[in-house]
Amino acid sequence: MKRRKAQYSSEQRQQLSTDIILQLMALPQWLEAKTVLLYHSLPDEVCTHALIDSALQQHKRVLLPVVVGEELELHQYTDHGALQEGAFHILEPQGPTFTDYAAIDLAVIPGVAFTTDGKRLGRGKGYYDRLLTTLNALPHPIPTFGLAWPCQMLTQIPTEPHDIDVQQVITATPEPSRLARWWYHTYKRYIALINNHLALRHRYTVGAENLPGENDSYIIVANHQNTANDPLNIIFGLPLHWHIHALARANVFSVHPLITRFLRWIGLIPAYRIGWEGGGGLQHNFQTFDAVAYHLNNAEPVIIFPEAGHTQGHYLDPFTTGAVRMAFHTAGRQGFQRDIKIVPTAHHYSDYFDMRADFLWMVGKPISLQPYYAQFQQHPNSVMRDITRQLRATIQDMMLDEGKEDYAAKDFLRRSAINPATLQAMPLPDRLQADKQFVQRIISHPRRDDILAEANALRQMLNDIGIDDTTVALARHPLRVGLRSLILLLLLPLWIVCLWPHVLCYTLPTLLLHTDKMFTNSYRVILSIVVLYPLFAILTFATLTLAWGAWWQALLWIALWVPTGQFAWTYFTHLRQTIRDVRRLMHPDVVARIRQARHHLTSLIT
């Protein structure tokens, strides 16, 4: 066994130990336990030191064994300074003796080797066998767990009649098979295909050169506006073969075990926040912190949104210190020897709610935490607050921040043709800069209140007849409107054919919406990718094959869903604009008043 263990480097041992500990901490028995029996590991055992500290942070009562003659006594552990070297060079606690064995909720038992069915090979003294005999004799059996590196798992081990098994052995997750990796990367490419070619029209990335190297440890921090679309679009801004992880609301992990497994498989990590799970749920974040540290130390980037929830538009909420706290936690797990970086990034969408929108991802210069390590160990809270303020200021400078106050009026003006950039065909990065200048002009204008009041009045007039401001500004000639209507009529049969299954994927997810409009596109994209497109592909293939035996026509149609979806949406946007043009022509008196209001508003701004 010594030779088997020698195959692991110290770094591999730490990584394997972290994987094992995270599995234990994810179990319901651990989450619900109030009193836990652990052991202070030796160098050739799965490292339990972080587990002990995490248990204390989660306000669990921690018991550690002490060798007294031929027996093990249990003593309460309070802090690392209370440990002293005892028998067999094992650190033992100096806290009070604990004898209320019935109060123990969970026990972790060491071993030299284990089998999958719980058989355990000890070090030959029988200490834990005698302790387990006592624990198993209690009216309510205590859940017992063994922790083992993969090399410690054997098919069979020699046992004696007095040897006592553990109920479950936890070992490191095996490396995924070649087939499993193929499925993961294939599925990721499928998601990228739908997201990048159906949900989006154009993708832009500015500042990609600021991203650290592939072997660096870093957290990506971003503003959070478009719910699930935000992490999705960051992931697809990075190489597809990278393993990226993102923090997500913890309540989505409790819907169904299959959904939980799927979310874990695609790289999501649960985050517990007071606004969602209450104060009691926050103790589980220690598990999340360790999961983040594990992935970062394996050079797998983690995406975090420090606003503690998505916003409702182009503005930035206050940041929590969670992202910075996790970064320092990771550094501490490595003894502050490895540099952890935080990369500030910002999203921008041409439209939150329509399909085929443009998307821009801006990447700022990373913040290296290494220069802060010494100061952090002296004044952790002030350092974390300073870095969080720095992060927020950087992201706010990159993004379009219109502010919450009078948001509807300001955003209407930005999207209207009163903004000179609206009628210009410019790439989204250029449009962002133009919009930021325009919004700043509105915010700092001496007659700001008058402008916003008139903007709200103009917006109401346009809504009353169901048109937008660009329709009035462009004032398309009736002959042009008629010609476009004729072309749309001729293409109508093709559009109807191309609607399958896209019209269902577009409309069905929105039936789940209740109050939060910002989930619109996330529901469409995520539910379509995960459920609807695969379901409709099966239905299409089965129907055409069974009805006409046309299996190859069915496969061809499914293969063409991306271009047919693009055509269906393009047709719909032209149809929608033509309807607006017709409405404009049908309300000449209202449009005349709108033009007067536009003229007066433009003169105020300029």
List the uncertain runs: none
Radius of gyration, in angstroms, nearest whole number? 30 Å
Beginning-to-end CA distance, first to last residue? 81 Å
Q: Percent of residues in beta strands?
A: 5-15%
Structural class label: alpha/beta
Mean pLDDT: 88
Tell me how many strands there are: 19
Oligomer: single chain
Shape label: elongated
The major beta sheet can be summarized as:
8 strands, mixed
Helical percentage: 40-55%
Written description of the protein model:
The protein has 606 residues and is of the alpha/beta class. It is built from 23 helices and 19 strands. The strands form four sheets. Strands 12, 13, 14, 15, 16, 17, 18 and 19 form an eight-stranded mixed sheet that branches. The model has no long low-confidence stretch (mean pLDDT 88).
Task: Give a brief description.
With 606 residues, this protein is an alpha/beta fold. Helix content is 49%, strand content 14%.
Helix-strand layout with pairing:
Elements: H1 2-5, H2 10-25, H3 28-32, E1 35-37, H4 49-57, E2 61-68, E3 71-77, E4 83-85, E5 91-93, E6 97-98, E7 106-109, E8 113-114, E9 120-121, H5 127-136, E10 144-148, E11 168-171, H6 178-199, E12 200-206, E13 217-222, H7 229-235, E14 245-249, H8 257-265, E15 268-271, H9 274-277, H10 285-297, E16 302-304, H11 322-333, E17 340-349, E18 357-363, E19 367-368, H12 373-378, H13 380-398, H14 407-415, H15 428-444, H16 448-465, H17 469-474, H18 478-498, H19 502-507, H20 520-548, H21 551-559, H22 561-586, H23 588-605
Parallel strand pairs: 1-2, 1-7, 7-10, 10-11, 12-18, 13-16, 13-17, 14-15, 14-16
Antiparallel strand pairs: 2-3, 3-6, 4-5, 8-9, 17-18, 17-19
Helix pairs in contact: 2-10, 6-20, 6-22, 10-11, 14-15, 14-16, 16-23, 18-22, 20-21
